[in-house]
User: Fold these one by one.
Assistant:
Number 1:
Amino acid sequence: MTKTAVVILNFNGEKLLPEFLPSVIQHSSGADIYVADNASTDNSLALLQRQFPSVKIIALEKNFGFCGGYNRALASINAEYYVLLNSDIEVTDGWLQPLVAMLDSQPDVAAVQPKILSYRNRTKFEHAGAGGGFIDALGYPFCRGRIFNYVEKDMHQYDDEREIFWATGACFIIRSNIYRQFGGLDEDLFAHMEEIDLCWKIHRTSQKVMYAGSSSVYHLGAGTLGYDNPRKVYLNFRNGLILIYKHLDGRELWYKLPFRLVLDWVAALFFIFQGKFKSASAVVRAHVDFIKQRSLHKVKRVDIHTRYPSYHRNTVYSGLILFDYYLKRRRRLI
């Protein structure tokens, strides 16, 4: 069995792979490097075979999305630790060692995320993960170093090691047995917030999710879907509802879910005022599909709550991020 497998999911990344893969090869000694290709229609596979012969290729027969692609790729890899790494990330010298060392030395840690910095503006954090992920009392996700569109400069304020609620799917390491225990990533989410769902499940066990600020990587971000892309808006709003429906206790769900629905409609109105009509429509479609698919998610909710009745909340922010950010003007919450 290989100890560590670094697995990059690729879809039509012919332009990204030559830019970012060399750093992974150079700085990931001791790990096997895989590229799982989600049935790309460009020349990704030919490029990999020609320019990067040391990289192992897993060619999937169709595009299974982020969740399905990783689930199928990782099922064929025999390793103790899986590293899920976006194709638009540049890693740094020594990035992998602190992540592996934390899993080696702390058996109650299931997953670890490094510091995520911006590839374009290297003095700032990046949207996806930043200094570690958290959720608020309504289940809204945010990060240390990035709340909504406010992004902090990296002044070494998050060079610590600490427990977090979720590790970004852009770059994190996880024990393979934990990944398999929960059946991997929920494919009904397709993409976006799937890592939060997995980490929420981890919090239902005695295991932890950690952040290691001594490891840094640089993320281009929005390499597949832009931040304002209506498809991304749809997935974020739909999947946000699915997450709280699956995980919140019944006594919380009866009032928090309607509250979230109302706040989503407020967000849709803001999109309309900004002239982003496709994004507003995406919010509506997200609600419609969530309601249509509720019976499917109810089955998963019952299963999760039966097998893992509760989760520890020491990394759940007790306040409301919308209230604290927009009304109190707070830019750092954790």
Note: The CA atoms of residues 41 and 178 lie 33 Å apart.
Number 2:
Amino acid sequence: MNEILAIGLILFFGYFVGRLISRLRMPTVTGYILLGLAFGVSLLKIIPKDLNLKLTWLIEFALLLVAFNVGMELRIDTFRRLGRSLILIIILETVGAFLFLFMGMMLMRQGVALSLLIAAIGCATAPAVTVLVLNEYRAAGPLTQVLLACVGMDDAIGLTFYSVCASIAHGMFDKTQISVAILIGKIVLGVSISIMIGVAFGILLDLITRKVTYPLDILVVAVGTIMLAGGLLQFRPHGIRFSPLIASMAIGFYIANFAPRHRAIRGALEHFSMPFYVIYFVLAGARLDFRLLMALGWVAAVYLICRFSGKLFGAWLGGTISRAPRAIRRYTGFGLFSQAGIAIGLCLYAAKEFPQVGDVIVAIALGTTVVTELIGPLMTKFAILRAGEAYKR
């Protein structure tokens, strides 16, 4: 097996599996992960682990595109329209999942560093799955608006959490003696510089695309800008770890809010990105060792329970403090169970960044994604039906 043949198999069979899964009214991402399971180390071994590692750069590139799209969803006018109460719900449901997951992993004796990484990966939600269900049942109402806002914004918080936790974990795994003040300073500096670099490249992309006419030229410039920013931030001067993902998200945020040609940039990247999304979902499934997942059975079960409980409690607490309507307090957490997209990318990103625990991270975070993608749509459907918002649009 060579790299080109592997990519050909992934895209060719990915198309047919995606069509089949969509006919079964399931998220296509589930089909891609199952295809990866079939091709990977758990079953046929068509894509062995060493070949998967050679293709890691494709996963990193796809994740930069995902982060850019997350940034494109963070509109300033949306924040103004949603108000303080909804912002509180979004923050608390994400923080709730993070805290519950961290405590759960610590109780399962996974260690502080690994627990932080798993908690940061697990606090994000899958926007595509939730939006798919809301569109299918033509949902409309206050709960629907809250769910759309949550899935669009907690990925940004999850990216930030991961960048901070990764910096802490590196210090623990490397066993470097460093004061808490210096560690916090390096984390703040790394995140701040990543945001500033992202905004600077967003301004550059905006200025260039104002002069560019053809969509293909816009695509070349946009992809080049995202990769240039992400590549520059791979350096680690004086132990400061930057975040290419936050920089890419900052580029998307600037373009969405300040670039007059943001629709042209989004349109140019939309179709281009799809093959890379298929590749990284399939490679994610191929990396999952099902035997290791079975060996971590109780850990995976605690992960699922803690993640759902954290989302449910955080959303309820935020709704209670902000005096949101009863349906929002009760059912928001049920619509946030799905986990894919940025979480899958982050678990693969972490597996490369922390090879000493890479297989455990992939087994827990990715193995449970298969479960959440099967149960999540049903729970979102339950939420909008109980809130009386199905078939209102």
Note: The domain at 29-38+47-386 is CATH 1.20.1530.20 (Na+/H+ antiporter like fold).
Number 3:
Amino acid sequence: MSGTFKKISCEPPCGFEVKSHDEKEVIELARQHAKKAHNKDVPEKDIRSKMQSV
């Protein structure tokens, strides 16, 4: 396992942020958050484009 985390924060900022070594976990949690908190279906490619390495 590398020392690099993947991170994504919600836009517009609502306080949600997820950070993990597992990119798939970040994507899944971000999609769940978007659906539950904002009633939006966000494509994986959109999440990947906003994901940062930290």
Note: The chain has a mean pLDDT of 93.
